[in-house]
Amino acid sequence: MRKESYSIETVAAWALALLWLLPLAYSFWSAFHPSEYATRFDISAPLTLDNFAKAWSQAPFARYYLNTVMLVTLVLAGQLVIATLAAYAFARFKFFGRDVLFALVLVQLMIMPDVLIVENYRVISGLNLLDTIPAIALPYMASAFGIFLLRQTFKSVPNELVEAARVEGASSFGVLWRVFVPLGKTTYIAFGLVSVSYHWNNFLWPLIVTNSVESRPLTVGLAVFGAPETGVDWSVITAATVMTMAPLLLAFLLFQRQFVQSFMRAGIR
Amino acid sequence: MVAAVMTAAEPKTARHRNWATNVNAWLLLLPAIVLLGMFTHYPILATLYHSFFSLGRSGPAEFVGLENYRYMLDDDVFWQVLRNNFIFALATVPTSIGLALLMAVWVDKKIVGRSFLRLAFFTPTVLPMIAVANIWLFFYTPDYGLLDQFLKSLGFAGHNWLGDPSTVMTCLAVMVVWKEAGFFMIFYLAALQSIPPELKEAASVEGASRWYFFRRVTFPLLMPTTLFISINALINSFKLVDQLVIMTKGGPNNASSLLLYYIYEVAFNFWDTTYAATLTVTLITILAAVALTKFVYLDRRIHYQ
Predict the structure, then answer these.
(1) Domains present along chain A, CATH in parentheses
(2) Of A31-45, B46-60, B280-294, where does the model show the most confidence?
(3) Which of A227, B101, B240, B253 has the most CB within a 10 Å radius?
């Protein structure tokens, strides 16, 4: 009886998993087959890379890739430096206004830049940065979430280590660089993975502030390319879609455990 | 003598050090303060400020008091997108939580192909919403799309899934549940793994059925996780609008539009930035209310050492 219910569950779990993979599997099917097979599932259908070649030649995807890589790097580098400094101050200094300031930082956790599109657009346009990559990156550079995570990590660093470094004559920066940063490694990896995934995938804000090939990230490029009025063939659009997802998907398949753990750590906080 | 000198010197160095600490700390915080000020605090205040002004298309912007708010309350589209947003939350939040729990229970135990199952459930989380929307758009395409082809092969008629106000929300909700359930699964999984195995052993010694054990022990123990996920899912349902840009543009006739998408439309298609600011104030109020609930009921217990 018990055994039977287990096997029923196993079948159900597998059915759901296959259903869950279906959209992805379908996009790969359609991307790697000629368009006449877009909805005909014939095992003998010939494989082809034509759709990718077409997508690559019909829109500047190379440039979009470059833009996204630059964007993700810029955001992450900025976030890491800014959050490290701020978290160090919050975790290890007693100073005037600390609690108020920390509460002000936390405001960003509930009201994210994603919803402040109207006024952020004004600010970016006031800075004369519209249609640039820094315009996409700037609102996210000071990450309350990163500050919060690192502060928690830095708070748990034992005092003895800090004292020992001080005795050896390390300055405040020296202590930060040689004691805190190395001990925060797991937090940095977790935050980094979440940040890269988020900004690789982000869409609405980049759509609003970019207007040219030179600044558009992949997601916006894909949306422009796949818009129904362009009349691009479905299989070519899926090829472009696969190209957009591929780097992150590949990274995820290779570092599954780190991804899942990072998303979890980041979510729980 | 020596002691006297030291006591006299000490307050001075202490004060000096205190002063230095303050300067150091504020310098460390300076980049974060400037950027947060520019892109979080100032925009929040500016949103509120602009919501009290006229657009000033012809002439300078004028203070109009609550005029924009009055307009908002009379705006049928505003009420519709707000209602849509709540329906959308109601449709996606419980479903993705239920599925996430089911998935977590499955992959928590020794099941054939456990790591494959985990992978399958979690993968949609790392995909860009815009790519996901592209794929699902094709599923829902009338006649030519996968869903219609499948239904036709069973002898049913085709249907314009995204073009029909009565089906469009369900279609979008299914997609979002697909995208989010695996993400919530990992929180349940972590919570399940922290339940001591002795409880289960004791229950099986007592002869409790699995369902009974789940209902009376596991589920109550997972309550904090459920609450945490519900709130995050609720916040997400107000933030997630990428798919609308590709799939429906809020249509047909605003049937699938959500508050943030409406803000985007008002601000960047109609360029009515003061009304968009007014709508943003509403969105901020909702998000703040949700976040404060979260803070009061959850966070305080978990961290505030």
Answers:
(1) 2-48 (no CATH), 60-268 (1.10.3720.10)
(2) B280-294
(3) B101
